[in-house]
Write a structure and sequence with these properties.
Length: 353
């Protein structure tokens, strides 16, 4: 297929957001419902309590309601409800669901329905429900959405191939409100941003350290550790993550084999690094990228939009991902064609830019 085709909206509600994983799609409606459709449901990606191919139409995920934000990785998904709780389902090979899933026994964390404070999904003791979970959950996947414990007041989420990220708002002891970044799942290339190469994966959400944001976009915890904070939004790609700060500057971490972190290298980074400006034009001699209002990541490339409407990209370009006249990769930002756009997918609360 070489040109777009219209997909009929059979959901019966207005669409707020659409995200896609590998061979499946999730749709969020304006009323907080989530629908799924796709040809691959081998790891429960569609969240419909079964491991089987999807039907020929979008199916509502019954466990979810009052959802304000969604994200999709390769084969796992994240949703945030209006209470700030995080729900996950799908693949869990590298613990990217952020919760223990026991083979044949469903999730080890809270089940139930989003928007409902009940933590007992099977209070009626229905044996049929238990039998169903036995066929739809293993240590490596879960077809039923469930809550990630330990996270609250989450504002934004993002998903890489096998890692997950959440930005939560927290109030410190002095009454100051800050945003902190949590990550979990695979850490083979530094995806979690915890500056620890000995941790290969984590089922527990871990705070992303400050890295190069130290002293500026950071918060010092009670144990003296400095963590990344002051975050406006987040996006993730294959093995990497990007955040935009309240000052519209950009930090990245994770895999960098194609230069997708934008720091003029091809070295994986286990803590946040500040993206260089590359060919972008700033009004001063500061070498870092500024005035960024939106971003998106692919498997190995990154695209951002500045407040002037121009789009910049860096990373892998073997298939023309960067929109430049060559297929050479770029390790720092280069301008995409002769663009001037005000639409680029970027997670910020309930809005997509």
């Amino acid at each position: 297929m070489t040109s777009p085709v219209e997909v009929e909206n059979t959901i019966g509600d207005e669409i707020e957001d659409i995200v896609s994983g590998s061979n499946y799609v999730l749709v969020l409606t304006t009323h907080g419902d989530v629908f799924s459709y796709g040809v691959d449901n081998s790891q429960g990606q569609l969240g419909n309590d079964v491991i089987a191919p999807s039907t020929a139409s979008f199916t509502k995920i019954s466990a979810l309601k009052d959802i304000k934000s969604i994200a999709a990785g390769d084969s796992h998904n994240i949703a945030v409800d209006t209470n700030g709780k995080v729900w996950t389902w799908g693949a869990n090979l590298h613990k990217q669901l952020g919760r223990t899933v026991s083979s044949g026994g469903g999730s080890g964390s809270s089940g139930g329905t989003s928007g409902d404070d009940s933590s007992d999904a099977d209070a009626d003791g229905d044996d049929a429900d238990t039998a169903l979970q036995a066929t739809t959950a293993s240590a490596d996947y879960d077809a039923t959405p469930a809550v990630v414990e330990g996270l609250s007041n989450v504002k934004y989420v993002a998903a890489g191939s096998a890692h997950s990220v959440a930005v939560a708002e927290e109030t410190l002891a002095d009454g100051t409100t800050v945003t902190k970044v949590y990550a979990w799942g695979y850490n083979s290339k530094g995806q979690l941003g915890i500056d620890d190469k000995t941790v290969t994966e984590s089922v527990t959400p871990m705070l992303v350290v400050a890295g190069e944001a130290a002293g500026k976009d950071s918060t010092v915890d009670t144990d003296g550790t400095e963590y990344l904070s002051n975050i406006l939004g987040v996006t993730a790609g294959g093995n990497q993550t990007l955040v935009i700060t309240n000052n519209y500057e950009v930090y990245t971490w994770g895999g960098d084999e194609k230069g997708q972190l934008g720091v003029d290298s091809k070295i994986d980074r286990f803590a946040p690094v500040k993206v260089w400006k590359g060919d972008t034009f700033n009004q001063d001699e500061d070498p870092y990228l500024k005035n960024v209002i939106g971003a998106a990541m692919g498997a190995n490339h990154t695209v951002i939009i500045r407040d002037d409407g121009y789009v910049w990209a860096w990373g892998d370009n073997t298939s023309g991902q960067l929109g430049t006249v060559t297929v050479d990769l770029a390790k720092t930002p280069v301008q995409v064609g002769n663009t001037n756009s005000n639409t680029l997918s970027f997670q910020k609360g309930n809005s997509i830019y």
